[in-house]
Every structure is written in structure tokens, then in C-alpha cells.
Design brief:
The protein is an alpha+beta fold. Helix content is about 35%, strand content about 20%.
């Protein structure tokens, strides 16, 4: 078994307690994953997040990418979410590789522009300013933070 941290070891024990002895969630056959209960699937995803998610987050940061698609031991890095497969594409990839696809992304950065007081003392909430650009037909073309 891989040498995991305490949280990941707890996840592995949780999987074993559900009759799922897994060294690496990336290696679970997709067909087996489909046959699992929802509770078992959640445990597999929790195990992936405890063990592999931090590793792939580091890789994203090192490579300057925003998204990573993992299927088995193969992965794809991108900074364009549109390059990721849609739900049907994920299903097709999972069936072709017989592995569970996992998507990892960098956390969204939120910049606060200030705090707004309410009528209740000490009950402030953050203010976020955005600029919305519209095309000639009034369709949204871009939303971005506006200081």
C-alpha cells in the first residue's frame, strides 16, 4: 500500500470497511465504480481528494495551468476549461480507459473590494465589484473583477 498521511489512511480503511481494498483510487476500474453504491463512490472520491488532489494542485501551480483531467495514470493540463470534455465526453473517456476520470482545478481567487455594514452592528459582508461587457445584441461577453 502507498505511504499516505493519516487522513488518507483513514480513507483507505473506510474503503476497506466497505469491501473496497484500494491502493490507488485512480486504478479502480470504471465498471467496478459504476457497480458501487453512492456511499462507496463518495468514499473513493474522498480518498482521491485526500491523496492525489494536493499532488495535482502542486502540479497545476508548477505548470501554470488551471485545470487537470486525470484518468488512470494519464493526465491532461489546460488553462482553458472549454478544452475539458463535457459530461458525455467524460463518460466516453471512462468507458474507453475503464478508469474513473477526476478533474482537479485551482481554487478560484476572490479579491475583496471592501466590506459593507448592515443595520446590525458587526454584521458586515464583503463587496465584490465586477464589470460586465456586452456585445451589440446585449449578450454577455465577459465578466471580470473591477477594482
Amino acid at each position: 500500500m502507498l505511504q499516505w498521511g493519516a487522513e488518507a489512511q483513514d480513507m483507505a480503511q473506510n474503503l476497506a470497511g466497505r469491501n473496497l481494498n484500494v491502493d490507488d483510487p485512480r486504478q479502480i476500474p470504471y465498471e467496478d465504480y459504476l457497480a458501487m453504491t453512492e456511499d462507496q463512490r463518495e468514499a473513493v472520491e474522498d480518498c482521491f481528494n485526500a491523496v492525489w488532489h494536493p499532488i495535482y494542485l502542486s502540479l497545476l501551480q508548477e505548470q501554470g495551468a488551471d485545470w487537470l483531467l486525470v484518468c488512470g495514470e494519464e493526465f491532461t493540463l489546460t488553462s482553458n476549461e472549454a478544452e475539458l470534455p463535457d459530461q458525455k465526453g467524460m463518460e466516453r473517456l471512462a468507458r474507453e480507459t475503464n478508469r474513473i476520470p477526476f478533474v482537479v482545478s485551482l481554487p478560484a481567487e476572490i479579491e475583496e473590494s471592501g466590506w459593507q455594514a448592515t443595520r446590525h452592528p458587526g454584521d458586515d459582508y464583503p463587496i465584490f465589484r465586477f464589470k460586465l461587457e456586452l456585445d451589440g445584441a446585449g449578450e454577455k461577453t465577459r465578466v471580470y473583477h473591477h477594482p
